[in-house]
Write a structure and sequence with these properties.
By secondary structure, the protein is of the alpha/beta class. The protein folds into 2 domains: about 1-165, HUPs (Rossmann fold); about 180-274, Pantoate--beta-alanine Ligase, Chain: A,domain 2. Helix content is about 35%, strand content about 20%. It is built from 9 helices and 9 strands. Strands 1-4-3-2-5-6 form a 6-stranded parallel sheet, sandwiched between helices. The protein starts with a strand and ends with a strand. The structure holds pantoate. Pantoate binds next to strand 2 and helix 5.
């Protein structure tokens, strides 16, 4: 595996299919699964590792985000990554530059709790796609709204690649894999699977025939308060439709249950598709 830090070192071999796995490092089984899938489907796999400052808000965890290039490089190599692209902030942002805003799907939920976050994500993903020139880019569905934003950007801007969305990889107790799980204390780690448990129970309860608006409201309210009773501070626990990300109370379109909740200093997000 080659480790490169400069855009000029990335080669674009003609006739070779390239798969890109964009990451911020802190590799876990979720990242490694994306890389393995890319390896099965593409001739050449590039993983990018860049802790993107523009997607972190004030007071967020940019400084303490897990950084360990040596460990990440060795894990990426084990799963067959060909090129690890780990640019510096100066390489990615040589000056105050253009910013991408993806309307509608960026607005609510993560968008309103983390102002500017999706502009940071969309801009860096667009830049990484242009730098690497992949045929396919792989993203994990754990960050569902990020997936919707990236997909919408690629469609709106006619970018010539496929966005491949891959299932969330979970710990045995259901906790979605995330680099941020490393922040959890032992006690918090034991509580953390409640987010997925509540999402799953809620999904089951919502899938009854002839569900009324009031019943759906009650089911969502119960799930939220049960997380709060467990000690979470819940930013949102919602049923949304995927096209617009707006809250809904029936399942007539493609929907997901989404949740964001804080446990101590850790903010967990998760979702289940319906
Ligand atoms: O999901 C992430 O790790 C980041 O948001 C991404 C897509 C690599 C952009 O910085």
């Amino acid at each position: 595996m080659k480790i490169v830090t400069r855009i000029s070192e990335l080669s674009h071999d003609v006739g070779t299919s390239i798969g890109l796995v964009p990451t911020m490092g802190g590799f876990h089984k979720g990242h490694l699964q994306l890389m393995k899938t890319a390896k099965e489907e593409c001739d050449l796999v590039v993983a990018s590792l860049f802790v993107n400052p523009t997607q972190f808000g004030e007071g967020e965890d940019f400084e303490r985000y897990p950084r360990n290039l040596e460990r990440d490089a060795s894990l990426a190599e084990e799963v067959g990554v060909d090129v690890l692209f780990a640019p510096s902030p100066e390489e990615v942002y040589p000056r105050l530059g253009s910013v991408i805003h993806v309307p509608v799907v960026s607005k609510l939920w993560e968008g309103s709790h983390r102002p500017g976050h999706f502009e940071g994500v969309a801009t860096v993903v667009c830049k990484l796609l242009n730098m690497v020139g992949p045929d396919v880019a792989y993203f994990g569905l754990k960050d569902l709204q990020q997936c919707l934003v990236v997909k919408r950007m690629v469609e709106d801007l006619n970018m010539p690649l496929t966005i491949s969305l891959q299932p969330t990889v979970r710990e045995e107790d259901g906790l979605a894999m995330s680099s941020r799980n490393a922040y959890l204390t032992h006690e918090e780690r034991l509580l953390a699977p409640s987010v997925y448990r509540n999402l799953s129970e809620c999904k089951q309860k919502l899938q009854v025939p002839d569900l009324t608006h009031e019943q759906a409201e009650g089911i969502l309210h119960h799930a939220k308060t049960s997380l709060e009773d467990d000690g979470f501070r819940v930013d949102y626990f919602e049923l949304i439709e995927l096209e617009t990300t707006k809250a809904v109370r029936n399942l007539s379109m493609q929907c997901a249950l989404i949740a964001a909740a804080r446990l101590g200093k850790t903010r967990l997000i998760d979702n289940v598709l319906l």
